[in-house]
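User: quick one, sequence for these tokens?
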């Protein structure tokens, strides 16, 4: 593999980046350029050769890159490959936080909302703790845990979370979502003001897709039960196609993503979606 060093700026000047932040930057660089060399990363991240190699080892264990002599290349995932929650939770951390903060502002106090499974909806759940009076329906074990933990009294002030949480039940997937007939029946009898939906992949041709057939049907039920559908997904999900499509782009009301999308892709999305919101990390008023 012939790697060519691009003319762009260094990935970071901060020598004290946390390991997960470094790895997210490395993965983004691998995906954008099609491959990187170890010596390029040591210069751009201002860390040692050994540190970079450890980061590449960790990313390779997660199955998101392939190590080659002197560097790494991206892994082309099969449409049926479904990464686990832990593997996904270390990726695009700042983007997910920006998206979560922006999407949380769309939740109306006292409304009924649904959150699908995923690491971005997990980040969103933490921000929704500040919205009073919510009824939250979720098929995500991780999301339910966020609200459950918030309901425990806080030593010193006795504060507890106010959200009413409904966990659908069902069969657990590698991403800690609950799917299958039990989840589908529970969702089919409910109605939400807004659904915050995480996705494995999103594209013009395939719409919203997932590698898990059972999860596709459960997500289909979530979309049908919602008056408004808000997709929350970072820029790496655009152009990814999973095994099974469960909704067309036209069924999405708003797509909340991060600033990593090119202007060309943004224009393409705006041609097919009524609402595109780019979360750029600017503090909300």
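Assistant:
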């Amino acid at each position: 593999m012939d790697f060519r060093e691009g003319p762009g700026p260094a990935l970071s000047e901060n020598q004290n980046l946390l390991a997960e932040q470094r790895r997210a930057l490395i993965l983004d660089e691998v995906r954008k350029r099609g491959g990187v060399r170890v010596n390029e990363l040591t210069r751009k991240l201002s860390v040692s050769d050994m540190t970079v190699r450890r980061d590449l080892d960790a990313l390779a264990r997660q199955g998101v890159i392939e190590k080659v002599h002197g560097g790494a290349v991206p892994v082309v995932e099969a449409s049926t490959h479904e990464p686990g929650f832990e593997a996904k939770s270390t990726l695009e951390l700042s983007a997910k936080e920006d998206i979560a903060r922006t999407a949380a502002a769309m939740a109306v106090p006292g409304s009924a909302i649904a959150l699908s499974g995923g690491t971005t909806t997990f980040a969103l759940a933490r921000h929704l703790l500040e919205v009073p009076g919510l009824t939250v329906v979720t098929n995500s074990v991780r999301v339910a845990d966020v609200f459950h933990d918030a309901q425990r009294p806080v030593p010193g002030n006795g504060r507890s979370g106010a959200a009413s949480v409904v966990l659908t039940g069902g069969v657990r997937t590698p991403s800690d979502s609950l799917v299958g007939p039990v989840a589908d029946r529970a969702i089919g009898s409910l109605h939400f003001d807004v659904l915050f939906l995480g996705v494995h992949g999103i594209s013009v041709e395939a719409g919203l897709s997932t590698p898990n057939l059972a999860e596709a049907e459960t997500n289909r039920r979530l979309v049908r039960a919602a008056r408004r559908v808000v997709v929350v997904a970072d820029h790496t999900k655009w152009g990814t196609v999973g095994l099974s499509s469960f909704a067309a782009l036209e069924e999405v009301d708003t797509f909340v993503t991060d600033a990593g999308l090119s202007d060309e892709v943004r224009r393409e999305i705006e041609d097919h979606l009524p609402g595109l919101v780019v979360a750029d990390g600017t503090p909300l008023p």
